[in-house]
Write a structure and sequence with these properties.
This protein is α+β, with helices and mostly antiparallel strands. It folds into three domains: about 1-115, Helix Hairpins, CATH 1.10.287; about 135-180, SH3 type barrels; about 185-270, Alpha-Beta Plaits. The protein is built from eight helices and ten strands. It is elongated and about 110 Å long.
Length: about 280
């Protein structure tokens, strides 16, 4: 009895294989044509999606739309177009899109629950595009990383560091943290602390620092620079030097001014003390 059941199962499996084999043989031509057309639909559709995305971005640029919003909407449009192309290719293969849609909807719910972080990144991308905490080309510090904003995508933002390293940051990390935008304002203040020795002439040092600041061609006259004694330190008298510059000139002026202070102090004979300790030794009886 058991042997008859086993023979029956083997017969059914063999019959199923033969049925599939005959179906493929009978419809091989049609299947091949559908596969070829599906590949063509995907390839041509991909090219058309790229062209339409480019035209959309150009239209938004012509309308003088913000670059962050253009970048975000361009990426979103390309993703939507590619989904349409994929569905068209699958439809050419004879896949029931209505049934597939129901399956995708059910799968989407399960995937959505497991990919809450990804969905939050998408929502954060929408917020960045709408509220514009920064623009493409701004130098920012976000999520602990500093760099120039290159592109805002639907899930992440791409930065380029000053040493030309690309950093990809999830949008959720940006919206959920502090955003420091160094390019948001046209001007910035340079804050330097300069120490001189207690034996130096404070009035002469202050006058010299004022001359250095006022003679620099990139330092703005308004707001007026500040040079003032800020602290009587352990080993030096400390001045604050606070000139204002255009944001684009910040680092050039800071580096040049720091160098000028050191070289001119050497020429004037002013000292720049460093921390030191006096050790007193007493001989015990």
């Amino acid at each position: 009895m058991q042997q008859e059941s086993s023979n029956s199962q083997n017969f059914n499996a063999t019959e199923t294989v033969e049925t599939i084999k005959n179906f493929i043989i009978e419809n091989a031509g049609e299947l091949l044509i559908n596969i070829v057309f599906a590949i063509l639909i995907f390839y041509i559709g991909k090219k058309i999606a790229a062209v339409l995305t480019h035209l959309t971005e150009k239209a938004m640029e012509k309308a003088k739309m913000d670059e962050v919003l253009r970048s975000f909407l361009g990426t979103l449009a390309h993703t939507a177009l590619m989904l349409i192309v994929i569905m068209a290719a699958l439809g050419q293969l004879g896949i029931n899109m209505m049934g597939l849609g129901a399956i995708l909807a059910a799968a989407g719910l399960a995937i959505g629950l497991s990919l809450q972080g990804t969905l939050s990144n998408f929502a954060a991308g929408v917020m960045i595009a709408l509220f514009k905490p920064f623009r493409v080309g701004d130098f920012v510090n976000v999520a602990g990383e500093a760099g120039v904003v290159e592109r805002v995508q639907i899930f992440n933002t791409i930065l380029k560091t000053p040493d030309n390293v690309q950093i990809t940051i999830p949008n959720g990390s940006i919206v959920g943290g502090n955003v420091t935008n160094y390019s948001a304002k046209e001007t910035r203040r340079i804050d330097l602390v300069v120490g001189c020795g207690y034996n130096d002439d404070l009035k002469a040092v202050k006058a010299h620092l004022n001359d250095l600041v006022n003679s620099h061609k990139l330092i703005l006259p308004e707001p007026a620079p500040v040079v003032a004694v800020s602290e009587l330190g352990d080993s030096s008298v400390n001045f604050v030097v606070r000139p204002w510059v255009n944001s684009a000139d910040y680092w050039d002026v800071k580096w040049e001014l720091t160098e000028n202070i050191k070289t001119s102090f050497d020429e004037k004979g002013f000292t720049i003390p460093y921390p030191q300790q006096d050790v007193h030794m007493h001989q015990a009886d």
